Amino acid sequence: MTTLLIDADDTLWENIVVFNAVNHAYVEWLLPGRTVTEMQPELDALQIECIAEYGYGRETFEKSLIKGIRRFGGRAATSRDRDHVAALVRPLQWETIEVHDGVVDTLANLATRTRLLLVTKGDREEQQLKIDRSGLAHFFAAIEILNQKSPAEYAEIMGKHALEPASTWMVGNSPRSDIAPALEVGIGAVYIPHPATWSHEQADVEDHPRLVRLRTFRELTDQF
Ligand SMILES: [Mg+2]
Predict the structure, then answer these.
(1) Could you tell me which residues come within 8 angstroms of residue 161 by beta carbon, excluding any fewer than 6 positions away?
(2) Domain limit, last residue, from 41, 73, 93
């Protein structure tokens, strides 16, 4: 039986656009007259520094916005600033999850003839919350929440679930996390780009005998 390992953020539901909207509101508030486009490289750099120190998750993102008050705004953060940032990041409590069009029908269809495993990375509690709120958990035989998606983690999943490389595929939007490491451990990869993939996750995707490129999640039903 074919097994599909399926990424979650920006593959099943909107994620990066929510972060982008927070960044937009933050720049408007802290740096009137500057645009989020010109600030994005510096915002990303600060966020990556914070991830290295604190790991993934919304608390790290909030810390990076508070640190940015000194770095970009040139002043110490006041308690009012902290309250304002806390309000800006409220959408990251994921009270609603915007599942992409066609995902529910496609998963229901695929679940009749393939084994589906959800494979996501990030803060465990936050990812679990998003999975619960998405209402999609019941389509998956197992859910794996990883700290990183490197070849070692994919090899571990293969062992844990007794998966054969020839009949296993990783489906996702991130060249760096979903596509490259999957191909490296010998499983197939299905690349479904999201228009707003985070710069940190971007990489060129070279042709490969086990790489499939699709435009939409729905197209998976033609493939498997
Ligand atoms: Mg993703």
Answers:
(1) 3, 117, 142
(2) 93
